[in-house]
Amino acid sequence: MIELKNISKIYNPQKKNQLTALENISLNIKRERLVAIVGPSGYGKSTLLNIIGCMDKPSEGEYLLDGKSVVGLSQGQLGKMRNKYLGFVIQDFALIEDYTVFKNVEIPIQYSNNKKNKKQRIRELLEKLEIEDKINEHAYNLSGGQRQRVAIARALINEPEIILADEPTGALDQKTGKQVLSIFKSIHEVESKTILIVTHNMEIANQCDQIIELIDGKIV
């Protein structure tokens, strides 16, 4: 499903402030896996997730997503790959504060070819995540756990095969974090999604099928 071959990411190449964020990364993530990416802050985890998510391009190496080569695609082509395969959940939720829950979840549909029955799809998804009663609530009125559930709904609305989550419990208290992790595990098991979670929390990582540890931009 996800195959990286000798991927490196170098910022400011051949300059005094050159920084190697990833060095010679090779890995293979099979379909329907729950994967944790762990390691200290600043050691390449988010960079790796951004490359897998077609949000950033590697400096070297080859990336195959569902057997298709990603390296060398135009921004428009990368956008189509993201829209078809990927959903994103990030630590600070990235909701539009003065939008309702419905409008926040609806955003990815605007860039999709599948706009049919969107109201029904959004309601069903919010019901599964137990926040259907918040559908007309503005984002600024939600709790942290509710906000993250909205972010998860937004990531799922286009039915992507892969969910990428960057510290999805980092801004939550311990109880709410466990609830959010339980949601991810349910999505993985019931809907057979491939899920990659960047986390500092080894309690979370140890509940995943596969752990990828990064130190100094290298897999250890």
Structure description:
With 220 residues, this protein is α/β, with parallel strands linked by helices. It has a single domain, classed as Rossmann fold (3-Layer(aba) Sandwich). It is built from seven helices and ten strands. It has helices at 45-52, 75-85, 101-106, 118-128, 144-156, 174-191, 202-205, and strands spanning 2-11, 19-29, 34-38, 60-65, 68-69, 86-90, 162-166, 194-198, 210-215, 218-219. The protein has a six-stranded mixed β-sheet with strand order 6-7-8-3-9-10, sandwiched between helices. Strand 7, helix 6 (174-191) and strand 8 (194-198) form a beta-alpha-beta unit. Helix 5 (144-156) packs parallel to helix 6. The protein is globular. The mean pLDDT is 92.
Topology, pairings included?
Elements: E1 2-11, E2 19-29, E3 34-38, H1 45-52, E4 60-65, E5 68-69, H2 75-85, E6 86-90, H3 101-106, H4 118-128, H5 144-156, E7 162-166, H6 174-191, E8 194-198, H7 202-205, E9 210-215, E10 218-219
Parallel strand pairs: 3-8, 3-9, 6-7, 7-8
Antiparallel strand pairs: 1-2, 1-4, 4-5, 9-10
Helix pairs in contact: 5-6
Number of strands: 10
Q: Count up the helices.
A: 7
Judging from the principal axes of the Cα atoms, what is the shape?
globular
Mean of residue pLDDT values: 92
Write down the Rg: 17 Å
Output the CATH homologous superfamily: P-loop containing nucleotide triphosphate hydrolases
Q: Within the CATH hierarchy, at the fold level, what is the topology?
A: Rossmann fold
Q: Strand-residue fraction? A: 25-35%
Amount of helix: 25-40%
| CATH C-level class | Alpha Beta
Order of helices and strands: EEEHEEHEHHHEHEHEE
Distance between the termini: 21 Å
For the biggest sheet, the summary is: 6 strands, mixed
